[in-house]
Amino acid sequence: MITKLVTLAGALLTTASAVTQDDFYRREVIPLPEDSVCELGSIALLPDKKIAFSTRRGEIWIGSGVYEEDLSKVTWTRFAYGLESSFGMFWKDDSLYVTTRTDLSRLQDRDGDGEADRFEIVSQDWGFNGNYHQFAFGSEPDRNGDVWVALCQLGGGEKWRGWAVKVSPDGTTTPVACGVRSPGGMGFNSKGDTFYTDNQGTWNGTSSLRHIKPRSFLGFPTGLNYYDLIPDLDAPTLPNSPSRFTEEMKRIPELYPPSVLLPHGRMGASPTFVVSDEKGALGPFAGSLFVGEQSHSQVQRTFVEEVNGVYQGAAWHFLEGFESGLVPGKLAEDGTLFVGGTNRGWGSRGTRGFTLERVRWNGKVPFETSQMRALPDGFELTFTEPVDPATASDPASYEMAAWTYIYQSSYGSPEVDQSVPKVEKATVSADGLRVTLKVKGLVEGHLHQLNSSGVRSESGQPLWHPVGYYTLNQIPEAPAPPVKPVAERKPPKDWVRLPWPEKKEILTGLFAPSEPEKALIAQALPTKPQVKVEKPAKVLLFWQCQYPHTSIATGNHALQEMAKSSGAYEVTLSDDPADFRSERLQEFDVVIFNNTTSYDVTIGAEGQEALMDYLLAGGGIVGIHAASDSCRSWPEGVQIMGGIFNCHPWSPKGTWAFKLESPEHPLNAAFGGKGFWHQDEIYLYRKGTFSRDLSRVLVSLDMSHEENRSSPKLYQQHIDLIEDDGDYPVSWLHTHGKGRVFYTNFGHNASTFWDPEVLRQILGGIQYAAGDLEAEAMPSAKLESPAPCACAAPHE
User: Known InterPro entries for this protein (predicted)?
Assistant: First the structure.
């Protein structure tokens, strides 16, 4: 072990001496106003190549010439004074917006003399008791125009202290997330998500870069009392101390981990600004977040990614040698990075009391690890230059260590729970820019240090910064083998003749929706009921059938998930005919038949009688697609669905035009008053089984379109049944006794169950059947209504 450590130290020394920062970046000190204590708190970029900075003593200065080669010609004008300390500033619409410890204000120079003469408070909806710790770090506007503010909790528990809030352009202040301790800066990544830095201390074992996930708990519990001001959000459980963050996340669902841990001492001690470089202005690091460091007078580089919905990523050293401790930073359009600093009694490696500097990349590419991504069994490294295959594929070129920190109410934490993951295999990509590491001993929730000092570039250069630190909040799941869509899977031969238990196994196994299909359903689900309910309706979802449809399992999944997403109903899934007994049916408000061909045969004579009694007494029924392929031997049952399947002239492979009848009807609200196109199999019903004298038609085929008229001609056995101007209903509703029925022909294709408009109509149908949604059920033949809303032409 001693030999290994000495060898590694030698490699580090070799790396450090190989190249210097000056080989790639030019750092320059910008002259500041004389006779002023310019301890910078924020920087703003202004038009006409000007910048502004604020000081902790409440002054704001505007400077010209800061972009020019000759910095001796920089000039400054004091724009404002007498403010509180500012840690956030931006220019918008001829105004300077300033986030101070007490408020967000708008400053204007109306008479053009170079000094602010109008001071307007946009928001002061947070508390302040005068304690110097009570900083407020503000962002620039996000994509919605909102300004985010991270409020330091130290020094007192005034309103919203310990929270991140956002301020809309009209001044409305909204709490976003609790758990902020001592922020140092804010910014956005390329997706527009908000990040801030937080400093080591109580409940923070080490400093970190954190994503502000709305409605989450970020870990510092002192601000939890302000949940009382948010009616629709309950306070999380208090964390235990001492503990581990990963353990407390199991107890506290709202607890959200730091995205990038910055190991105390190794990566500085006090992180500050957050700057996103979306275009690679600072080198081949497009998409990176750069983080200021006050104590070590540095700029760090980070890479973040989302894994299982959680941000995590890596950090490396980047730039150093600044004159003071860095606090604000801004990246200009031309690629100039402006940074400001102050020691303010805190101390820093930079010895000046304050500074303003600029950094520019000279275009030369340093050999670096630009990205580090987590894999199920290791990491993928991306390099700025092609690697030498011999060194990069040698596992001995890499050394790893892993640890975590105590999550506790005491200050900080040592590095604990150490382990030594091992790189077992390194595979170089064909272009030499990526290396895949297979690692034994990954630990979820741990910080993983990777030292790649043995790797060389194709030209023989060592890495400029060989050590990176990856925060492994989540180990990615191994990708599942490719799964065919439900529609492309082939059932066993003659499976329709199998007994139900064997059909059931095939439907729930072979024809279960894939994860991508479940994701499509999740995106399409309604997020609220069509009408609010005092309590969810009780729904029996029945799915045993004689002839099986391969979309049944997908439909079951969608209907169950829609119950959760909308809150309109609760589902009991059943394939048991014994549920069709009077005393059992009385437990439910609605019975859904999902593609239940010949359900009358399945439930038997006793079930038929119980179902009819249930409907006549006021129960609700919803039929989906093949629910109408039933009741051939039970004439009375025809009245339940309102029609019996005859044939399907419109193929499931076709996309058909549909028109709305009564576009303003509540159950047509999903379609926005317009006809539409949809791919599915469409039925023709037996003559004499469907009647507009009994049912209110909602959607029907639009026979003005050639596609709808020509398709049946492909089915010679159907050609005599179809009329070009015929009446072909698709979905309808009616009453029977005191009961309510909604039926839709849609549902043969699995893809129907991730069509958001169709799902919303089905949800409306369920709420109608349950009696929660009032909807006109007067039969279509008795209406005096406007003409149906025709479907738009193809590609219009």
Answer: 6-blade_b-propeller_TolB-like, Class_I_gatase-like, DUF7133, ThuA-like
